[in-house]
């Protein structure tokens, strides 16, 4: 059974949210209300932005907000300081993990990745510094990754005695091919973003960290001003939620495209083209989605509900 999700309260300003080790900014910063471009910054520079359970909970809180907030068009994800993310916080280890059956466990990195993946607003990962482990896998659900040529990146799991996490065994080979993915995961090595082992994982690279963030903001602004959020999201889902054969894909994308031909964003996009102006796209999934959406079966990744400690104590007295 898939339960209805909790309702999401959208804040007037994201900059006022009380968050742990994650900073959310408007672009330009200080704007009184949410802007089309939102910047999410991993904010533990003294720990090289190593990721914690508390930070994962922040992502599970803010990304559903971005998803339903029509003011937000693009998210830029970056890190404070010299590193993008040094992976999971190994100093804290796994001591905070709840004791449970293997099949009931939900990898915190996977929960983070799915929060980004399920958001209809694209994320641009501005990886201004080095990243390993979870720092790499969190970038895989992003639509675009921009790296720094002076930094090193890698999937170091086998060098820590660990296997792939964050649903990366799904994302990585689909992004760069099985051959490259196998090399990176087998060696566990770190390489510059221009290494051939990454294939086209990093769509753009720059020599200076500041250039990485500046380019991400420039690109995010360009997307927010010129791209239909709904058309962009549905196109990405057509790739990720592919039914598996050319014939089945033809049926799925035909139904979606036929609906989009008569949609308000298509009409606005064509009108803006001929009038030589920026479009004002305002179609939403809630009001304008194709009848076939979603064309895939939703998977409930939640855990089974558990009785509260108070309920258990009450039962024990009976």
From TrEMBL:
Region (Disordered): 282-318
Entry-linked InterPro entries: ClpP/crotonase-like_dom_sf, ECH/Chromodomain_protein, Enoyl-CoA_hydra/iso, Enoyl-CoA_hydra_C
Signal peptide: none
Biased composition regions of type Basic residues, renumbered to the chain: 304-318
UniProt xrefs under SUPFAM superfamilies: ClpP/crotonase
UniProt record similarity statement: Belongs to the enoyl-CoA hydratase/isomerase family.
Protein name from the UniProt record: Enoyl-CoA hydratase
Native source species: Penicillium egyptiacum
């Amino acid at each position: 059974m898939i339960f209805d999700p909790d309702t999401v309260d959208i804040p007037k300003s994201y900059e006022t949210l009380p968050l742990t080790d994650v900073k959310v900014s408007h672009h330009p910063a200080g704007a009184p209300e949410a802007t089309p471009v939102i910047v999410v910054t991993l904010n533990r520079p003294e720990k090289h932005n190593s990721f914690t359970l508390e930070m994962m909970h922040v992502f599970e809180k803010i990304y559903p907000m971005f998803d339903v907030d029509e003011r937000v068009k693009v998210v830029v994800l970056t890190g404070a300081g010299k590193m993008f993310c040094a992976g999971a916080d190994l100093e804290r280890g796994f001591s905070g993990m709840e004791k449970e059956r293997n099949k009931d466990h939900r990898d915190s990195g996977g929960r983070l990745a799915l929060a980004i993946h399920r958001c209809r607003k694209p994320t641009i990962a501005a990886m201004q510094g080095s990243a390993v482990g979870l720092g790499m896998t969190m970038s895989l659900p992003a639509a675009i990754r921009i790296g720094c040529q002076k930094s090193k990146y890698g999937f170091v799991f086998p060098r820590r005695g660990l296997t792939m996490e964050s649903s990366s065994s799904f994302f990585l080979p689909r992004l760069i091919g099985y051959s490259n993915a196998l090399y990176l995961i087998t060696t566990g090595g770190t390489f510059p973003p221009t290494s051939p082992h990454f294939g086209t994982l990093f769509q753009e690279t720059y020599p200076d960290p500041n250039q990485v963030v500046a380019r991400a903001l420039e690109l995010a602004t360009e997307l927010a001003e010129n791209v239909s959020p709904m058309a962009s999201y549905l196109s990405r889902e057509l790739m990720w939620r592919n039914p598996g054969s050319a014939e089945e894909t033809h049926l799925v994308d035909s139904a979606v495209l036929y609906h989009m031909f008569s949609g308000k964003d298509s009409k606005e996009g064509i009108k803006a083209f001929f009038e030589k102006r920026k479009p004002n796209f305002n179609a939403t999934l809630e009001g304008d989605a194709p009848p076939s959406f979603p064309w895939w079966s939703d998977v409930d990744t939640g855990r089974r509900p558990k009785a509260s400690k108070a309920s258990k104590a009450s039962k024990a007295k009976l």
